[in-house]
Amino acid sequence: RVRPRAGSSLEPQERSMEAPAVPEELPPDAAPGKGAHELFGYVGIEAVLDQMKVKTMKTGFEFNIMVVGQSGLGKSTMVNTLFKSKVSRKASQPGQEERIPKTVQLQSVTHAGVGVGGGSILGEVDPPQRGAALMPSRLTSWDPIIKYINEQYERYLREEILITRKRKIPDTRVHSCVYFVPPTGHWLRPLDLEFMRRLSKIVNVVPVIAKADTLTLEERAEFKQRIQKDLKAHAISVYPQEDFDEDPDDRLLNDRIREKIPFAVVGADQEHQVNGKRVLGRKTKWGIIEVENPVHCEFPMLRDLLIRSHLQDLKDITHNVHYESYRVRRLNESNR
């Protein structure tokens, strides 16, 4: 060991190195029992994903679903099944439930889930009288729906163009519209075709066959093929749209989903005992139809599409495509 000369610049450095180490102060938010060195670990994309997850869990996010279809197709029951919670509000009189009225007027119901803060927009639509479904001289049944969707875009646009705007703009835009097709087993009605044609231009439309347990498996398969032919013949683009498949892996997944659309669903918000387990289902004289059993119906596919696998994609397409089209049109009108 070489000793430095007296007064050398190395002497204080040596003394500081030989001094006992003082433990660094832990940050106030550090977990107990963990050293400061554990705050600096592996750097990679996982760290970014963890940050996004923690931030999302703290701030929450909005995801809005609209259900559309004629009355009696089980729209409220389907949303109850989707969120496993009652969406009907309590009436002023005890022992009664306030039912959503069977009109073309929309009412909003909010459901907050654990880890998922969001809402579901319910609107029961009664078709107009026979022969007047497509008459432009009177108010058609899709006008309130389209007006509501555009109003949410307008509300978001007004907040966005403010000079001093909120850090987080409340998002009431409709991210997905689940359209209920009655289980006739025949072709799509002209009202359904025109409805979906208009809606598909401004929102993500996911068609489903309501009360699919009223059809046999053969009838259900034939009805699906006829609906797919009708949608293709009338150039109705339902979600997931082929034009937005950028990644090859996404295209393969979405192709499998498109083969199953429209989903044949059965809604039920009551539990039954099956083989010692409590399952959601509908009891009939032939047995119990298990809602979450893929062999019985395709509700699990619809639930996974809306909540598990494509939720963020629904939000992205709503913001980058449908809302962007509305924003460009409105700003052009303002400039003129």
From TrEMBL:
The keyword Oxidoreductase does not apply. It comes from Chauna torquata (Southern screamer). SUPFAM superfamilies: P-loop containing nucleoside triphosphate hydrolases. PROSITE patterns: G_SEPTIN (PS51719). Pfam families: Septin (PF00735). GO terms for cellular component: cytoskeleton. One of its GO terms (biological process) is cell division. Keywords: Cell cycle, Cell division, Cytoplasm, Cytoskeleton, GTP-binding, Nucleotide-binding. Residues 59-333 form the Septin-type G domain. Its main location: cytoplasm. GO terms for molecular function: GTP binding. InterPro entries: G_SEPTIN_dom, P-loop_NTPase, Septin. It is found in: Cytoplasm, Cytoskeleton. This is SEP12 protein. Belongs to the TRAFAC class TrmE-Era-EngA-EngB-Septin-like GTPase superfamily. Septin GTPase family. Residues 1-33 are annotated as: Disordered.
